[in-house]
Amino acid sequence: MQGKRKSLKHRSKHVINFYSVKNRCHIWCESFLERTFALYQEFDEAVDCYASQPEYFNVFGARYTPDFLIHYKSGYAEYAEVKHSSFMRDDFSAKHERRKQVIHAINKHDLQLVSELDFNSVQTANYELLYPYKQLDISTIRSEIDYLPKRIPFAKLECAVKKLVGANSAHAWALVANQFFLFDTSQPLRPETKLMRA
């Protein structure tokens, strides 16, 4: 799924280039909050693909572009509006309801509203820490991890992976980033963190 090209219409608006491993393309985010939302989609196993600024709708004479369109592996799809909670006043709520009605009438998709309150700061920090390792090639060691215990502390996983031919500790991080090993992401990832093989 391709993201929208970089917009030049608002020179004062931040435009953040986020590379999506899941989509294998660049995603243009218009705020750091949108970038955080995109990061969460990368780690959500239910999400098949997603796009930023996907298309626009005419909402009672006003042009409206949702921030994201998310396609799930189940076949379900929905749009997302990502906004800081400080903007969610009564007038915004009324606008959001009108947008939801118009979009649902056109293509039956829902429009969810997401704010910074929907993100856990520890979980976000874990995702930021792990995300750079998502692109690391682990195909050569995937078959060699089956002998490892189903439950293992992160430090022991690093030690075990470093013993494999052509691997180093970064490959242990990549195994966790690509969710071959799972952990409670609401807690900080530490050497003693207990991992569970997926």
What would you say about this model in short?
The protein is α+β, with helices and mostly antiparallel strands. It has helices at residues 32-43, 90-107, 121-130, 154-162, 169-177, and strands at 16-20, 25-29, 47-52, 57-59, 62-64, 68-72, 77-82, 110-114, 151-153, 181-182, 194-197. Helix 4 crosses helix 5 (169-177).
Keywords:
single chain; 198 residues; 3-stranded antiparallel sheet; 29% helix
Low-pLDDT stretches: 4-9
Mean model confidence by pLDDT:
92
Percent helix range: 25-40%
User: Which descriptor suits the 3D outline?
Assistant: elongated
Q: How is the secondary structure organized here?
A:
Blueprint lengths: L15 E5 L4 E5 L2 H12 L3 E6 L4 E3 L2 E3 L3 E5 L4 E6 L7 H18 L2 E5 L6 H10 L20 E3 H9 L6 H9 L3 E2 L11 E4 L1
Parallel strand pairs: 7-8
Antiparallel strand pairs: 1-2, 3-6, 4-5, 6-7, 9-11, 10-11
Helix pairs in contact: 4-5
